[in-house]
Design goal:
The complex is a heterodimer. In chain A, about 30% of the residues lie in helices and about 10% in strands. By secondary structure, chain A is α/β, with parallel strands linked by helices. In chain A, strand 1 (about 20-25) and strand 2 (about 35-40) form a beta hairpin. Chain B has one domain (about 5-330). In chain B, the strands form two sheets. An eight-stranded mixed β-sheet of chain B has the order 3-2-6-7-8-9-1-10. The chains are: A alpha/beta, B alpha+beta. The interface of A and B includes residues 35, 208, 223 and 244 of A.
Chain lengths: ~300, ~325
């Protein structure tokens, strides 16, 4: 797959069809992958593809990355799950489909965190999203790398995140409250969850608005709770469960539980899952005359 | 000659001895699937098999958030009140030699042109007990910044693993007093310390050259910065886990009429860090913010305070969501 990927990247850069290829490369000791930005066709051998390619690179297509935008039209190496984020960005008018060349990678799953890698991809080191993935064959692409995957996700989603959500749902409100207060108490307000999220593309986040200060910057229970609730609410109907926020959290707050819960609520209320069709707008940003809620009419 | 030792089985007694006198005992423990420094109450909570805690112990000297004053606004008055510094007797146990070396620089900063009692009072009441490393990973680079698992800089007491015991070496007066104060717990014996594990020095890095090159400010607009650091996503995770990062922000919180003034961790990786009220931002792009952090570690800070800007603990490398490795930038600047 790497060979095909590199050849395609080379062709794209040489023809001038794209100016930069956003992909994965090795770190110095070849133990971890890291995002790379290839602008010179001579550098395409830097590109790698393996189960350590966890990062959702669609982040770099957002408006926050002016310097990357300035390089010119990008091609992006993307797994199906990453493409779901690209789709959301397109539906939200962040850029047009033709503004990016999508090199879709067929995928057999990645590791949850790169530190877990021991040389082999086993089910126990894969995140819940991979066990239920319905986009192992990337769905919106300009070019596909890899053999078609024959994986069919289970009919009823399974895995740790779903089990934990179910478990939390069965608890009383006060128990759930106690659970989250405890989890959020570790928050250090580094905002890695926000920065790594391809859908958190606001140039001025509400946390940074200080006239008035809507969200207290202090890492005390009130500040932490208001930040984490705001983050969650802003992702309703948009989050694709890519899991980058949880992966990046230095204090291991189980953000995937919140994300998956929201996804479940949206699925139930609007029968909508984000990131599959770039022509369908997410439910929170559209008005429909046949909305089942009366108050909106 | 018999050496001073601490039996691992006696750790519980040491904790009791410290907490019995009203102190707090901070040690690496497992919390939420990782090793972190936390206040512990019993020896069972202490993690023994670890390389380094995810957080640095700086939060026990310089908390993430703390109230430094309280205020009440009247019709024509502002009543501003100071608060007591919360500085309990603290033992930081199981710190690594790398992170302890950050203390000199921390002290230099918090006593620079103003004595920050919120730091110094805690520092006075804190004893740092380091344990030499018997494990390392590929993010460790202490030897590259001229430290090693045998360094005692910043430590009050230096321990080494020795089977079921630790060898004990009191480094500072504070450390000696600590060992004396808990003399009943420390024993003596002749034990052989386990070998220390030295992380390999990164071959292409020359720290002196890095500093030298950074002095010449012509690198400032060099294309090498965006090239190396364009992947940085601008989160503050590296600065928050870093034992030498110590920037903070002062904020007022409360209602319209009363509230508290807080000192909160801040990060040079945020665009709001240098954003002016005019809207101008001298560090508009992320690579400039990254350059600042690197300059702070290897240029401004060591020059101004002769303290270590970077101790090579590798936390920033481990925690980075995009694996931006500071040593790869050091390598570039060693050329």
């Amino acid at each position: 797959m790497e060979k095909t990927l590199r050849l395609k990247a080379k062709e794209l850069l040489e023809s001038g069809e794209v100016k930069v290829v956003i992909g994965y490369g090795w770190n110095r000791s070849k133990t971890r992958t890291t995002p790379v930005f290839i602008t010179d066709p001579a550098d395409v051998d830097t590109l790698v593809w393996n189960p350590l390619c966890v990062n959702n690179l669609s982040l770099y297509l957002t408006r926050k990355y002016k310097e990357i935008k300035a390089l010119g039209r990008p091609a992006i190496v993307a797994k199906g799950c990453d493409i779901r984020n690209i789709v959301v960005l397109i539906t939200e008018g962040q850029f047009k489909r033709e503004d990016v060349f999508i090199i879709g990678m067929t995928c057999n799953g990645t590791v949850y965190k790169q530190d877990l890698w021991k040389g082999e991809l086993t089910p126990n080191i894969m995140p819940t999203k991979c066990h239920n993935c319905d986009v192992r064959n990337p769905h919106v692409t300009d070019f596909v790398v890899g053999e078609k995957s024959t994986f069919t996700p289970p009919e009823v989603p399974t895995g740790m995140v779903y089990d934990k959500v179910k478990d939390l749902d069965s608890k009383s409100q006060s128990e759930r409250w106690a659970f989250w207060v405890k989890e959020f108490s570790r928050c250090v307000k580094c905002y890695a969850c926000r920065q790594v999220c391809p859908l958190c593309y606001c140039e001025r986040c509400i946390t940074e608005k200080n006239m008035p200060q809507w969200i207290e910057t202090s890492a005390h229970p009130r500040g932490n709770l208001s930040w984490n609730l705001t983050r969650a609410m802003h992702l309703v109907g948009r989050c694709t469960f890519c899991g980058e926020c949880e992966r990046s959290c230095p204090v291991n707050i189980p953000l995937n539980l919140i994300n998956q819960k929201m996804i479940g609520v949206v699925k139930e209320a609007f029968d909508f899952k984000s990131g599959y069709d770039e022509k369908t707008h997410p439910p929170m940003i559209v008005f429909s005359p046949d909305d089942k809620e009366n108050f909106i009419k | 000659m018999a050496d001073k030792i601490l039996k691992k089985a006696d750790l519980g007694k040491l904790i009791e001895s410290v907490t019995g006198k009203g102190g707090r005992f901070v040690a690496p423990t497992t919390d939420s699937r990782q090793i972190v420094f936390k206040k512990v109450k019993s020896a069972e909570e202490i993690a023994t098999d670890y390389i380094l805690a995810r957080n640095s112990f700086k939060e026990f000297l310089f908390p993430q958030t703390e109230v430094v004053a309280e205020f009440t606004l009247g019709k024509d008055t502002v009543d501003m009140r100071g608060v007591e510094v919360h500085a309990p007797q603290t033992v930081i146990f199981g710190a690594r030699p790398c992170e302890a070396a950050s203390l000199k620089g921390m002290h230099a900063l918090f006593t620079w042109d103003f004595i920050d009692e919120f730091y110094t009072k805690r520092e006075d009441n804190t004893v740092v007990v380091t344990v030499g490393c018997t494990k390392a990973d590929d993010a460790c680079f202490c030897t590259t910044v001229n430290l090693s698992p045998a360094s005692t800089e910043g430590a009050d007491v230096y321990l080494r693993e020795a089977g079921e015991s630790y060898t004990v070496e009191a480094i500072t007066d504070k450390g000696k007093k600590f060992v004396e104060a808990h003399a009943a717990v420390f024993g003596s014996g002749s034990v052989k310390a386990d070998p220390l594990v030295m992380p390999e020095k990164i071959a292409n890095i020359d720290l002196a050259k890095v500093s030298e090159r950074l002095k010449d400010k012509t690198h400032y607009d060099d294309k090498v910065w965006p090239k190396l650091t364009r992947k940085c996503i601008g989160c503050g995770a590296c600065t928050f886990v870093c034992p030498t990062c110590r920037c903070f922000d002062i904020v007022d919180e409360g209602t319209a009429f009363e509230g508290e003034r807080r000192k909160n961790w801040d990060s040079c990786q945020y665009d709001t860090f240098t954003l002016h009220a005019s809207g101008h931002n001298p560090r508009e792009h992320q690579h400039q913010r990254w350059r600042n952090r690197f300059m702070c570690k290897f240029n401004f800070f060591p020059e101004k305070f002769s303290g270590k800007g970077c101790v090579g603990c590798g936390r920033c490398v481990r925690v980075c969501p995009v694996r931006l490795d500071i040593t790869e930038v050091m390598e570039e600047f060693s050329k």
